[in-house]
UniProtKB/TrEMBL annotation, chains A, B, C, D:
Pathway: Amino-acid biosynthesis; L-arginine biosynthesis; L-arginine from L-ornithine and carbamoyl phosphate: step 2/3. Coiled coil: none annotated. It is found in: Cytoplasm. HAMAP family: Arg_succ_synth_type1. ATP binds at A10, Y11, S12, G13, G14, L15, D16, T17, S18, A37, G120. This is Argininosuccinate synthase. L-aspartate binds at T122, N126, D127. Belongs to the argininosuccinate synthase family. Type 1 subfamily. Homotetramer. Residues 6-169 form the Arginosuccinate synthase-like N-terminal domain. Residues 180-398 form the Arginosuccinate synthase C-terminal domain.
């Protein structure tokens, strides 16, 4: 790879990406463009502008954008149509944000004539893979720079030395080492590393940042109602909300009731296992609600096929293959199932749990006429079941007959 | 089908199966053998003996058995190795009990020279299918009698008339109609029908029988520890327990903390949707714990394959194909993955939730040496990630290059 | 089911469906509408009109249609996009025709105000299922009449008696029993039953009707070229052809070279195994060609996912679930993969075989620059493979280390 | 990676691996152990001993072994139980040999106290991955040396220079470049590269080495009979044969009839597409025969599940994951299905094709009593089909009713 001339950096404004910014300038002597996105991580963006300017970035090279609506509408919601969970439990909060960041990095590179993009993910994690696969899938000629895999700033001390040497301001609370590492966006907050590295030890309470402890949650349950249209949530308690506003509102509700905490050891794509603490308050409610509305609006054949495809779909997102033909194929299948996933779900939120307690829809496939214990007025002929069973049994009978024949 | 001469009836001792017993005698003039099993449903069995005798069953034709250990060891535990859930949520508590009952019915038929078995499931549900597929898979020549599909006792009144006419004692509380229908065994209690038939209405509190309301559960969380060997739970808080005793103990813990309630609309094999309220206190804890121990002992390749196979496996059990070659194939695959699923999991039980909070194992695949944020002493070379990404990206780059070439 | 008043019958004009026609008139006293379709079975349709008139059908109730183009375009081609084969070998020639016939039956019923449709499939086969599932999926209120499951004309003699009694003309060659049963359409000819019922006996030569014996095929191979656009074949040897014309031409080529014969024992949906002799000359060539063009135009991720989904897709078609949400979901996934499946394939036809020998495309993903054994000018860095292997190996190393640790 | 001290090299005795041998000695100054295996590639092994001695390998460090029986018994046959084909067509002849070679390399390393193994695969192909993943899965601490990824002998000229400088004898026909690259073992011969690099060009006739041109095959078909036991072939025409002898015999038969040629463009695990010419004469017959015997002995449920699992299984072998938990899980499932796959298949071999024409088995599930077009004496009640269809249709009717309701 030849040296980059102009690089678009995913820039948070924090110490680490500021060091990367400087390192790119000094190591490659290249022009740096910064991209700072509001994905709902809960930090102000404007300070990033000032820091970028301070580090010598030209104003026209500073991109600061609120992409929350795009994030939820085009990434989070399509994923939730699939009921995607990784390894049975993880709602993919970090994974799903990466392709969008890469998409904007690549687009800004094309707008500004940059030949490279750079990110601050380390060489041990999944995020590097997600950033880079997405970037290459969108621009096969782009260069991707991952300083953590290249430089020799391998300890905290070396990093701080570099920062000081380069006049990068260091916030006081960054001098000491953080006791764990955090990633956040509108869908979730993840914490990992350091105090969390021993999976036999319970995570300390202070790790949780976005949800109250279930013990501290209200003593009264709260019933909410979520409306869906074609597989996507569109309202809460009757109020229509944009995708990002809806997820924000669900986060408030979930956070208040201590919903969506997860302590997980997961298998990374790069081959090792890691332990993470995830908080996905709104997403946890949304998943439950989406399953709730599918229960009455989705046919069994479609629902079971979705369940079988889901683990692969989740794995693809986890591994960074959002922009891949196979994810798009699965998405096409999933989306084809959601046309009638319209209606309302009532959920009970209480001390860490969100559970569906009622659901209704004009698109419902539930037929009280068929299922009733009462007289069904001929809707269903119980005698049909005899033939149904006989023909389902036929191959099993032939198997059993063989067994007896060979033993006899 | 020629008329049966001797029938083994799955007999609970209750009103409905007593009516069936009598009906078999009068309709077919056949000898009846009763089989009453303790599957952990929480009812005494000896009264069933007296009732059977009263209805003229010879003592040698009355079979009363405690099959709880076999149930948990050979059915529930193998299923939990798979982390089986149907339609994302249902732990299959009713489904998994049916094949064992059929197995004993068929075995008793062979011991007693009976040519038929009979069950009390209706023609609308899944249970008839499960009973009958299992019976036919074990004895291709057995006759199966399903009185609910045959007789004309189509209303409660007609049933009670038949009972009275035939001197079948009717408990006072059975005169009126039960407000919903219940099935119970050591794994769960299910309730459905009547007051539950409108899925838009919240289930009344009195439906729940086996778990306290989360609001009434203890205000203090309880931490428990479950030990596993080769995929099966073997101890609680350090005390070794037999399968049935272990599940019984988990049920107590789960019931006390309001764990394992589910309000579900599901797709039945016979084609309609139905709504059920399930309480699976111990099973819900067990599933969480099993996932917890797999997190550190199961390789990612095995874990993901298991997740992909699971929905099919669950569907097979739900549909009644426990005794089928494909269920056995899947079981072989699942069991092959469990050799090292040995270790301990700590869970926090609190007001409706059971969550893994720590896990450890001599068989752990978690490598702090690899994953650490600290210096890893060369365990992992971050530069490897560059090549890993490049080759994973290669096909995506070729795709992107095609896109550009064709547009350009 | 109340008695039908007006029935649309799938009518071939042959003896069996003429008997059905009469039986419907006499058994139900209902008005009969006939539907006779040209699906490429190679028979003239106009005689069916005369026979229908002779049996008293009003001219406005006689529907005769050439639906070959619709058949190939909307059913055969979508299925071939999936490379669908049932049980590894069967190209689904009969299965794929049934839903289209049902679709037209239901449409004609709606046009003519009929309340029922009828077909001539027996109660042992798959076709009854396919006809009826499709009919019910398109009109939930339609009645379906399957005379073979209802009447008592259970022997050839009884059928002929009924025909004579009702003045149905019997062709001389129909007096004796056919030595096997045949179904044909533009995609294939299938033969089964009677002389073919022992799968240990080789099928007699006279069973094959549509392909020459490979031994009698030309001694010279023939090279042909098939052009594809977006997954569908569009030309042969440079000549653009409509779907039906293209398949007709491939049938000629395949028939001449003895291509597409199959002797199969398959598992029917109704539970038994049956033996069929299938001839699918054009389809066999088309499948090979479609795989040929996908080899260079379809990404590995998409191709492998397609291969994994295919058996389910084929099973759905075989079992009669063309009109089901899950088939439509799979079709959406498959179709999403075919956008670039455009280009040309050269095949060699010779004495029973069709093999891809060359293929090219503007949409090709094959990169000689990458794969070459020669100097690749930096297109591919072999050192990347080291990291790729290391990270793919990491979990395997951790597994092996555990094995050693526990043994050590 | 620290420098290796003692290396076990997969040594063919040819020029390339002789250069590697020398390079290992000179580059690392390490002791070299050679392993030369007879996998049925059709070359004498003893010359390799002489060459190794000439290059200074101590006699006790020269391992020459005939591992054909182990190869077929423990690798080829288990794979054929799965009917494994990669990307619909490739029988995995190269892929399946690699793990066995690695297994012996690792075992010899442990016997001889070597700390490393080495292979002669390039950095562009799949074989490096297969060798190395297998080695690491068997010994997590082994070093693997892949000289083609390390050295600078990047052209034929440099290689020959190195050989001359190091007194490595060069056979005359190796001076010029081979027009393509070949790999062979008892299962297949593959050819790729150079003259084959343009997939739009037909492969020249001289590429094929193991099968006659179909045009030159006998004009008379040959009927053979293969006997199976529990999924593995055990006899040909009534003669019991060991696994390797059986495959050898099938290769003769297939080679003589021009069977098993394949011209394929495939997706490599490392991300690019490549074109190969494969000849798998015996394997092609074996696959057809195995499907033939499964047709009557394998239940539909098992057969369809196998078909769904197969593409993943084949992909795992192709990608080098033979020694992985997920391959072992799938193998357990597949093997669990083969208990009754016992019987005989008759095949017709003719000018490039092998087709099943008859099959029989004491374990057959085919029931003429059920399937017959004649009177079945009550084996099957056609009326059962009505109920079977009604309940399979119920969900489709509910879907159709919704569609009408919403439109109406």
């Amino acid at each position: 790879m030849s040296a980059p001339k102009k690089v678009v950096l995913a820039y948070s404004g924090g110490l680490d990406t500021s060091i990367i910014l400087k390192w790119l300038q000094t190591e490659y002597g290249c022009e740096v463009v910064t991209f700072t996105a509001d994905l709902g991580q809960g930090e102000e963006l404007e300070p990033a502008r000032k820091k970028a300017e301070l580090l010598g970035i030209k104003p026209e090279n500073i991109f600061i954008e609120d992409i929350r609506e795009e994030f939820v509408r085009d990434f989070v919601f399509p994923m939730f149509r699939a009921n995607a969970v990784y390894e049975g439990l993880y709602l993919l909060g970090t994974s799903i944000a990466r392709p969008l960041i890469s998409k904007r990095l690549v687009e800004i590179a094309e707008e500004t004539g940059a030949d490279a993009v750079a990110h601050g993910a380390t060489g041990k994690g999944n995020d590097q893979v997600r950033f880079e696969l997405a970037a290459y899938a969108l621009n096969p000629d782009i260069k991707v720079i991952a300083p953590w895999r290249e430089w020799d700033l391998s300890s905290r001390t070396k990093l701080l030395d570099f920062a000081e040497k380069n006049q990068i301001p260091i916030a006081k609370d960054k001098r000491g080492e953080a006791p764990f590492s955090v990633d956040a966006n509108l869908l979730h907050t993840s914490s990992e590393g350091k105090v969390l590295e021993d999976p036999a030890e319970m995570a300390p309470d202070y790790v949780y940042q976005r949800t109250v402890h279930p013990e501290d949650a209200p003593n009264e349950p709260e019933i909410i109602e979520i409306g869906f249209e074609k597989g996507d949530a569109v309202s809460i308690n009757g109020e229509a909300l944009s995708p990002a506003n809806l997820l924000t509102k669900l986060n408030e509700l979930g956070g208040k009731h201590g919903i969506g905490r997860l302590d997980l050891v997961e298998g990374r794509f790069v081959g090792m296992k890691s332990r993470g603490i995830y908080e996905t308050p709104g997403g946890t409610i949304l998943l439950e609600a989406h399953r709730g509305i599918e229960q009455i609006t989705l046919d069994r054949g479609a629902a079971h096929l979705k369940d079988e495809l889901m683990p692969r779909y989740a794995e693809l997102i986890y591994n960074g293959f959002w922009y891949s033909p196979e994810r798009e194929m699965l998405q096409a299948a999933i989306d084809a199932s959601q046309h009638h996933v319209t209606g309302s779900v009532k959920l009970k939120l209480y001390k860490g749990s969100a559970r569906t307690v009622a659901r209704w829809s004009d698109h419902s496939l539930y037929s009280e006429a068929h299922v009733t214990f009462e007289d069904d007025a001929g809707a269903y002929d119980q005698k049909d079941a005899a033939g149904f069973i006989q023909l389902n049994a036929l191959r099993l009978k032939l198997l059993a007959a063989r067994e007896r024949r060979l033993k006899g």
